[in-house]
Specification:
mainly alpha; elongated; 168 residues; 6 helices
Length: 168
């Protein structure tokens, strides 16, 4: 009940608990003690909820980018078809309109192509594998030169030297 209510304070929880057959409710101090024992489980459940939400959001973005790629390909095909079928009849479609459709389709496809696969690959990795990939990138970047290299908002100075050595 406490978790479903959004982990309220003990006094709010107490107000929501019905009295037993003797008209008694647990005291706020008792509820505080109980809540203290539930915190680890609640944090674990919150992590699972966040993990599931992240997976769903990633999949939704992958699906969106795939749709954008299909739309971009269709736009390009329509533009090319218009160019080819109306070469001599520019009153039907202006060259500028067909060119804009073609360039916009190419831009959308370029931005969308490849990203869905990359996101799916990342989503299938566990946290350790992602951390290992980041460590390898950081190590590779620092070997190329430079003291601090920003990679996905991660500064090399935030990682202990021993952590980099462990990734070998």
């Amino acid at each position: 009940m406490w978790y479903r209510m959004g982990k309220p304070s003990s006094s709010v929880l107490r107000d929501s608990i019905p009295e037993d057959h003797k008209g008694i409710k647990p005291h706020t101090d008792t509820l505080n003690a109980w809540v203290g024992g539930w915190l680890d489980r609640a944090n674990h459940l919150d992590e699972q909820v966040n993990y599931q939400l992240d997976k769903r959001l990633i999949q939704e973005k992958v699906d969106m980018l795939r749709r954008h790629t299909v739309v971009a390909e269709n736009m390009q095909n329509m533009a090319v078809e218009q160019f080819e079928s109306h070469k001599d009849d520019l009153d039907y479609i202006t060259a500028n309109t067909a060119l804009r459709m073609l360039t916009e389709g190419i831009r959308i496809e370029r931005e969308s192509r490849g990203i869905p696969g990359m996101l799916e690959k990342m989503a299938s990795k566990d946290d350790e594998a992602i951390l290992d990939d980041i460590k390898k990138l950081v190590k590779k970047s620092t070997e190329a030169g430079g003291d601090t290299v920003n990679i996905i908002d991660l500064e090399i100075s935030d990682i202990e030297d021993s952590e980099l050595e462990d990734s070998d």
